[in-house]
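Shipment paperwork, digital attachment
Item: protein structure file
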Amino acid sequence: MRGGYFKNNMTKEKTKEFKSFDDFTNLYEIQKTLRFELRPVPETDAVLKNKGVWYAEDEKKAKEKPVVKFYMDILHREFTKDALQRVMFDLGKFFELFLNLKHTQNQAAPTKKNKQLKQADIKDKRSKINGEIKELAKMFKDAFDQTDKD
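Attachment content:
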């Protein structure tokens, strides 16, 4: 008599009204929860094929997807190339800031006061690097926006 419990409970007139997501959780022990898995029935494929139009449209989209993706990749590559050609930045500046930060991090700080100064110096250098990165990001954004307008 598998499933009799649920069949009997579904025929009762008293039903619980769910008002929030919490009403759906912790209703059953884990073994029962795992038993309630969804399994397709053999008729599922036949039902889907009989629906016709939308199933045929999905097949059409699946066939056209590689072609559309190919051309969209070309457009994206060209757009990105055009936008990146508009951006000029000095990579040496980033490299110098990064090396300066690494040098400060590798210095010994034997006293408590020196350690605090070192941490403050590292924080300052990191904020400079972050400022440069934000400025570079703005340059990239502006370049992509301008390419989009053209």
